[in-house]
């Protein structure tokens, strides 16, 4: 008869350790995924980012079925998203007026949907590739990358963000981006599991990469350099407009008064920056106010940069358009300032309705004809020009997209991001968002100005360090200085393609190295 080597081992050594009960294993995976949030802002317990993926790795036993592996991965991913993105509850329930029970169901469904990424990660790891740390970490990075584009993308809760201020590891960010940081962290955690299993050889790749990362940290290569001009004085205005009042027509004038008052003593600074949609109306409806602000800016030699909804009436064609296209935008006006940036990455159901064209042909759908969506800005936009510098922009959550921010940073001297995180109240969402901006600064070697409605308004240097920060939920002005820098980091030059190529290569090699089980013939 013929027996595989695995069957032979079981006959020779029948006392094989059994895995945990499926229910207990799923529960552990669920808790491990939920605990990962502790590694990110505002908690910052970064060792959890090593331990949490390592637990998932340890639970995926070599001899388990694909179904069991998928359930374990699905449980981990569901816990990760239900806890890590629970800040969505504030916008759904508090500002969306959704009943508590329905809001909780929506969060659970979101967690189940996003949990599929880890479910398929575990399934592929179990059934397709060799079961060792390199393939596990490579699959982890690929599923993070897929979250930046699949179904429009939701690039949140990456392992690499936990190490934004741990420079012994985040020194890899300017070289290959946040995915490189995620890869080394997950690889290290999985390798420790193998070390505990007395397979010390698996530690070699992770130790080698850690040595490279620490060497970069100690050498401290200057990928970019100061442009050679004096630092620019900036004032970031935080209006703290309540979200339930922000878009009310009767509160629009009050909003403009608040921002004008906060800016009164800031004219004369090099740059005054207002947050996303701080002018809560189209530019065509605020002509008088805008002209007044521009006049003040020019008289005091100030560049004024502000978020505003922009209606492109010149592009309106009544024969085929229901309305003129409009954009979530940021505009540079005043002294030595020019340019308009239109947001590229829109929030599904928040800024546009997916498949809106389908709704137009459903006459029985009440209100379908009244649906209006922001238009998407081109991915080939010129940077803003401010005081002789090129200024790259990112609006709200599009700064969470590494490649979008990278493209916007090319050829610029510094960067800005404007946002309105009032939707998420006192939750962890705005602080996680700030952490992503720090990583984008690291990746691109550029200073960031971040102006928000309710916080966190901050100035971040080219190393991802917060230089100045305003308190949340206060009507205030953050003053500081920023430095123009030139040069490209390796990540700016090559993007995420090198790290994705390496991940794909590792998985191919792992697949090819997974040899068919040899058969042995037992004598009679």
Write the CATH homologous superfamily of the largest domain: Carbon-nitrogen hydrolase
Which spans have pLDDT < 50 for at least 5 consecutive residues? Answer: 8-17, 362-369, 518-524
Would you count the extended β strands for me?
17
User: CATH class of the largest domain, please?
Assistant: Alpha Beta
Q: What class do helices, strands and sheet pairing give? A: alpha+beta
Output the radius of gyration.
Answer: 26 Å
Mean pLDDT: 90
Count of spatially separate domains = 2
Strand content: 5-15%
Q: Please outline the major beta sheet.
A: 7 strands, mixed
> How many individual helices?
19
Cα separation of the termini: 9 Å
What fraction, in percent, of the residue positions are helical?
Answer: 40-55%
Overall, the morphology is: globular
CATH topology assignment of the largest domain: Nitrilase/N-carbamoyl-D-aminoacid amidohydrolase
Named CATH architecture of the largest domain = 4-Layer Sandwich
Largest sheet: spatial strand order: 7-9-10-11-12-13-14
């Amino acid at each position: 008869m013929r027996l595989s080597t695995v069957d032979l081992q079981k006959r020779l050594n029948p006392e094989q350790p059994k895995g945990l009960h499926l229910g207990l294993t799923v529960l552990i995976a669920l808790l491990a995924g939920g605990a990962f949030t502790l590694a990110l802002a505002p908690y910052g317990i970064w060792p959890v980012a090593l331990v949490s993926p390592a637990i998932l790795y340890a639970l995926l036993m070599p001899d388990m079925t694909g179904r069991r592996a998928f359930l374990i991965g699905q449980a981990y991913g569901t816990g990760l998203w239900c806890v890590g993105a629970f800040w969505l509850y504030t916008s759904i329930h508090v500002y969306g007026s959704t009943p508590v029970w329905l809001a909780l169901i929506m969060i659970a469904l979101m967690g189940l949907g996003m949990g599929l990424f880890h479910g398929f990660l575990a399934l592929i790891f179990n059934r397709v590739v060799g079961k060792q740390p390199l393939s596990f970490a490579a699959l982890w990075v690929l599923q993070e990358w897929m979250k930046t584009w699949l179904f429009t993308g939701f690039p949140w809760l990456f392992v690499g963000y936990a190490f934004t201020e741990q420079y012994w590891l985040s020194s890899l960010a300017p070289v290959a981006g946040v995915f490189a940081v995620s890869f080394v962290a997950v690889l290290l955690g999985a390798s420790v599991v193998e070390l505990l299993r007395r397979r010390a050889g698996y530690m070699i790749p992770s130790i080698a990469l850690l040595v490279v990362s620490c060497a970069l940290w100690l050498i401290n290569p200057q990928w970019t350099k100061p442009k050679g001009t004096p630092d620019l004085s900036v004032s970031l205005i935080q209006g703290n407009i309540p979200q339930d009042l922000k878009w009310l027509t009767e509160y629009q004038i009050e909003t403009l008064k608040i921002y004008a008052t906060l800016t009164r003593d800031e004219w004369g600074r090099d740059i005054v920056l207002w947050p996303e949609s701080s002018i809560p109306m189209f530019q065509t409806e605020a002509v008088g106010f805008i002209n007044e602000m521009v006049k003040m800016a020019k008289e005091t030699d100030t560049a004024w940069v502000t978020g505003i909804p922009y209606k492109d009436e010149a592009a309106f064609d009544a024969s085929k358009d229901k309305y003129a296209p409009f954009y979530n935008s940021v505009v540079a006006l005043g002294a030595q300032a020019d340019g308009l940036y239109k947001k590229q990455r829109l929030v599904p159901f928040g800024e546009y309705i997916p498949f809106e064209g389908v709704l137009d042909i459903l006459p029985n759908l009440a209100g379908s004809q009244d649906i209006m969506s922001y238009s998407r800005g081109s991915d080939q936009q010129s940077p803003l020009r401010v005081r002789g510098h090129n200024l790259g922009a990112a609006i709200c959550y599009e700064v969470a997209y590494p490649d979008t921010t990278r493209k916007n940073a090319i050829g610029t001297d510094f960067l800005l991001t404007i946002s309105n995180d009032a939707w998420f109240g006192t939750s962890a969402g705005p602080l996680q968002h700030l952490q992503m901006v720090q990583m984008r600064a690291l990746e691109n070697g550029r200073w960031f100005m971040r102006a928000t409605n309710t916080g966190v308004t901050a100035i971040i240097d080219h190393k991802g360090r917060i230089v100045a920060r305003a308190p949340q939920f206060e009507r205030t002005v953050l003053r500081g200085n920023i430095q123009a820098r030139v040069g490209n980091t390796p990540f700016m030059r090559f993007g995420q393609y090198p790290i994705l190529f390496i991940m794909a290569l590792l998985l191919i090699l792992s697949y090819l190295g997974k040899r068919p089980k040899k058969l042995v013939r037992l004598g009679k």
